[in-house]
Design brief:
Radius of gyration: 44 Å
Strand content: under 5%
Order of helices and strands: H
Helix content: under 10%
Shape: rod-shaped
Largest sheet: none
Structural class: little secondary structure
Length: 82
């Protein structure tokens, strides 16, 4: 049974479309984005168990106190291992 309401003369009653009301009441189903592919981890390089060796990459200056002084007539060997 419809409800009878007295509206003022300057207002107009508008009925809503029942299909649109049902569509608005239904929960909106959002598509979930596809999951990202799993990352393939690179193989870790093997750990070397050999002792560490210090290699000098710059020549020391003659006045540098860090380098041991060479004795007269003795030359410093400058060969690389391997």
């Amino acid at each position: 049974m419809p409800l009878k309401i007295e509206w003022p003369a300057d207002l107009v009653q508008v009925e809503s479309n029942p299909d649109k009301i049902r569509a608005a009441e239904e929960p909106q189903v959002e598509e979930e984005p596809a999951p990202r592919p799993k990352r393939v981890r690179p193989v870790t390089p093997p750990v070397s168990e050999e002792p560490l060796i210090q290699i000098e990459t710059q020549r020391s200056e003659p006045g540098n106190s860090e380098a041991p002084p060479a004795e007269k007539g003795e030359e410093k060997a400058s060969t690389l291992p391997g």
